[in-house]
Amino acid sequence: MSVSVDGYRMAHATDNGLQWTLRRNCSVTPAQLWWTYGLLCAVSLAVAGFFWWQGATLVLPFAALELLAVGVAFLFYARHAVDREQIRVSPGLLVVEREVAGRVSRSEFPGPWVEIALSREAGQLVEVRSGVRSERVGRYLRADLRPALARELRRALAYG
Asked: What is the pLDDT of residue 115?
């Protein structure tokens, strides 16, 4: 199936349909974060080591405790830095794939029976419903762009 992305702001064409990839807005990648943490550890431990050598023996344990706390905070950040939602519309099928903290979940909805709406709860996320099953998407998208995502999904399902 040949798909044109004319009129779609957020989608891109794949071999068999349209795809929306919504990612968390992160200014630092996990790799950059660990390099920064390594540099922070080296500098902090060098300063603490100097003061320990001068006789301030409690500086080094407190520096290590501080670096441990910062490392735990960086770990939580890094686990969620690559979170994403991916929505694919192909003929007769809508697939929502979500990755949160490295865990991937996937939901498939039969295209002709899918309803797309803005949910009244959860900060007006886009709700994909079919029967009793539903998924909310758009949490990594600015709130003012969620109605546009809903329109694009409805349009893609109408042509798909």
From this structure: 92
